[in-house]
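Lab notes, practical 5.
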Amino acid sequence: MEEKTLTPEHVVRKVFDGQLNAHHKELVEKLWLQDVKYHEGDLTVVGRNKLESLIEERRGVLADLHYEIDDIFSDGEKVAVRWHGKSPSLQSSGHNRKYWGISIMIVRDGKIVENWESVSQKPLENFA
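Output from the prediction step:
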């Protein structure tokens, strides 16, 4: 049976729900192009393996960070997401920092080829 290509919006929802929140690392290979470009402020990461390393490094700082999608909309291959993150360990330690962002992703043939992030703060600098 032939696997159906997911819509761009569905791909992005799988990143948030499956990869980031449920920690299904195997989705990195399924959902991100090998030569994906990831941009966040002055940071640019090229390649799925480097992106996966960045995600794991950040997960090491905030292992219980849970992302929630506040808004999502798409136009063709472009998907825009407004999201926020919550961390029970931060809240219980008295840190009330808010972590939120906007992501704009380009999805082709069921894989993210490029992603631009604008975040409220850099997790490794402000949460460690």
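Observations recorded by the TA: The chain has one domain: 8-122. The two ends are 46 Å apart (CA to CA).
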